[in-house]
Design brief:
Layout (H helix, E strand, L loop, with lengths): L2 E5 L4 E4 L2 E4 L6 E5 L5 E3 L12 H14 L4 H18 L4 H12 L3 H32 L10
Antiparallel strand pairs: 1-4, 2-3, 2-5
Length: about 150
C-alpha cells in the first residue's frame, strides 16, 4: 500500500538509512510505493544525543530498524542497553518486556514508538532522584548556614 509523505521546508526524513531533506522553498510530497523503513526527523535520535541509558537503548533500536544489514550487532547493543536500564530502573520492566516482545515479532516501528515511553520514564526517574537529593541536602545538618555560626 503506497504511503504519501509531506515534507515541509527544511524538514528531514530517513528512508532505509538515507537522510532526505527538503531544501526547496516550498513543501514537497513523496509517494513511497513499496515497503521501506522510515523515520521522521522528530522521531530520530542522533548518536550525540544518545547520552542516557534509555536514549542509548532507543538509538540502538533505531539502528536496528534502519539498518537491517547490521541487525545482529544492533540487536545485541539494544539488549545490553535495555537490560542495563532495567537493572537500574526496575519500575520500567513492563515497558522493557513489551519492547522485547515487539522486537521479537520484528515490529520495530511499533517498538520505537514504545521506546519513547522508556525515555519519558527515565526523565521521571531522574526528576524523582533529583528531588530526593535536594531534600536530603536541605535536611542535612548545617545546610544553609554559613560556616562559623
Amino acid at each position: 500500500m503506497p504511503l504519501k509523505i509531506h515534507l515541509k521546508k527544511g524538514q528531514q526524513i530517513i528512508i532505509n538509512g538515507a537522510v532526505i531533506e527538503n531544501t526547496g522553498s516550498s513543501n514537497v510530497s513523496l509517494l513511497l510505493k513499496n515497503d521501506a523503513s522510515l523515520l521522521r526527523d522528530n522521531d530520530v535520535l542522533s548518536p550525540e544525543d544518545a547520552v542516557t541509558p534509555a536514549a542509548r537503548a532507543y538509538y540502538a533500536l533505531q539502528c536496528l530498524y534502519l539498518f537491517p544489514s547490521e541487525f545482529t550487532d544492533n540487536l545485541r547493543r539494544f539488549n545490553e542497553f535495555l537490560s542495563d536500564y532495567l537493572k537500574a530502573a526496575p519500575s520500567a520492566q513492563p515497558i522493557g518486556d513489551e519492547l522485547w516482545r515487539l522486537v521479537e515479532k520484528r515490529e520495530l516501528y511499533k517498538a520505537l514508538k514504545k521506546a519513547q515511553r522508556l525515555i519519558s520514564h527515565e526523565s521521571k526517574v531522574f526528576m524523582h532522584v533529583n528531588e530526593q537529593l535536594a531534600e536530603k541536602l536541605r535536611d542535612a545538618p548545617g545546610s544553609g548556614e554559613p560556616e562559623g555560626g
